[in-house]
Design goal:
The structure is a single chain. It contains 2 helices and no strands. The protein is mainly alpha-helical. It has one domain. Helix 1 packs antiparallel against helix 2. The radius of gyration is 17 Å and the shape is rod-shaped.
Length: about 70
């Protein structure tokens, strides 16, 4: 169970990081009308990756450590 929760935290971090980087790399900087929105969405996903991933990892460690008592 602990490994599955860790994997979920790492995957959520990687998917959000990849999505944010993809959006920032493929932003059409020639079109000035949509540039701020595209950069904002890309930065949102980067921030989400660095916040949600570690939070899920901390929650996974906390839940896995509080297993059933014997």
């Amino acid at each position: 169970m602990r490994n599955l929760l860790r994997l979920a935290a790492v995957l959520s971090f990687l998917f959000c990081l990849a999505g944010g980087l993809f959006i920032l790399i493929h932003a059409n900087y020639a079109d000035a009308r949509h540039e701020p929105m595209t950069v904002g969405i890309g930065l949102y996903f980067l921030g989400k990756a660095f916040f949600v991933g570690p939070m899920l990892l901390a929650a996974a460690e906390r839940l896995a450590g509080a297993g059933p008592r014997r």
